[in-house]
Design goal:
Blueprint (H helix, E strand, L loop, with lengths): L11 H7 L5 E9 L5 H8 L8 E3 L18 E3 L3 E7 L4 E7 L10 H4 L5 E6 L8 H10 L3 E6 L9 H8 L7 E4 L4 H20 L9 E2 L3
Parallel strand pairs: 1-5, 1-6, 6-7, 7-8
Antiparallel strand pairs: 1-9, 2-3, 4-5
Helix pairs in contact: 2-6
Length: about 220
Amino acid sequence: MGSRSFPSEGQRTAKAELSQSAPLALKLLVAGGFGVGKTTLVGAVSEIPPLRTEELLTAAGVGTDSLDGIENKTTTTVALDFGRITFPEAGLITYLFGTPGQERFWFMWNDLCIGALGAIVLVDTRRLRDSFGAIDFFEHRGIPYVVAVNLFDSAPVYPLPAVRTALSVADEIPLIQCDARSRTSARDVLITLVEYLLARRRAGVLPESSLTRSSP
């Protein structure tokens, strides 16, 4: 997968919107099912040592947390992941909050989504059914999101239109492939989300006040 710079040649309008004196600060969420790669993506792209709340899997998850397809997983996020990446050429700072994946920790999502402008829903093709909870969460709260299919080495690869149909994701919502381990690939997912948010703002769907600039 080739590297992208932000903004790309075709996004000069987006660059003009962002390139002002005070940086634009965005709170973005990284969500998805259990073991889908949220912690990995935040850690891969963050320019600071990421904050992680990983704990060893215990007997508490037996019968609750399905390990089908991820039998080698030994840890899990119990609160959140946090990272930051700056796009200086665009005057943009993004703060990333990774959500816990297990359903028993979903009550934390309501607090994590406060002030969030957009979200990335990570998908594992071996466990597509685990993606519906995150998609429904953001749709019901009106939080814009993009879908990123994490290309696990052992996972089957399906055409993106087939994945879109399986997840019942609307055509206007960006859906891309990624490797959550790769900084370049994870960065491309973030760029896709930011471009989508800017397009929604230009269309009048996203309030102007929702994109705020941090203090100099």
